[in-house]
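Please, structure for the following, as tokens.
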Amino acid sequence: MPTNPYPYRLKRRLQRFISPQPALPARLRRPRVLVVGCGAIGQRLLRHWQQQSGRSGQHGLRIMVLTSSPDKRAQFQALGATPIVGNLDVPASLQRLRGWAHYLLHLAPPPGRGVEDSRTRHLLRTVQQRPGRLRALVYVSTTAVYGDSGGQWLDETQAPAPSQPRGQRRWQAEQQLIRYGKSPRAARTVRLRVPGIFAPERLASGLAQRLAQGQPVLHREEDVWSNRIHADDLARACLLALWRGRAQRCLHISDGQPSLMGDYFDRVADHLGLPRPPRLSREAIAAHVSPAMLSYLQDSRRLRSERMQRELGLVVQPVDLPVYPPK
């Protein structure tokens, strides 16, 4: 018979009570968030976190940003984040990210060519080298994964059928995330499908220039349905998805008020005081727009966003002002 009167597990508990381990420093107890691809949306989130927690952030978050541009380090530091220089196209540069984050926001676009997303593959391999610490991974995708639905209303149960390489790359990235989400000790994985993004600062660039140059849109009877989301609402959706998004879930992030693209460009022109764009047939317009713009004119769909409202508790503002075509 054993001489120890206490069961083994009880003895271990007593030992921890009598001689507790020293507490971790506060800076190590705070949730750690890694932002990959910190462009306009990521920087909106950084500003939000900075306003909420302040630079000291004793009870806030520790934020790390992966950037491939060393000259942006000071910019991210001013927003309260720790920049790490690395490149998703160079897997060896990602080693410092292993096992660091509790939450990961993946905003980086795929490569500009092909139908695969090697950047997401490299990021997931890095994450999986030290599994278990990461609690949630949010990936910002695009509604181009659906291809052309002829203007039909779509919810998240619609099967993807991308018709353009940009949508094929995004769907391939989503498939990688779905497989990762099924692996042992995987993080809670959430995919956000995003249409055109409206940001006021975009008015002075490409869209205004396009209208000033008189680039055409489709005749109304041939026009395509497009969808939008305000950049501030997209940033809020990313934040909420990190905490509230369900595992292996896909969500539409949209204002739920689609319109014909040409009608929307007319409103943009009126807002900017520019002439409305001329209207051409689908056959004739190919000679007057870029291949990228032509690809946007080949997909027509309308998005339902009730799941976003129900599961994230996010109510967004309608986008009445200019926005770029879907990315």
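The radius of gyration is 23 Å. Residues 30 and 236 are 21 Å apart (CA to CA).
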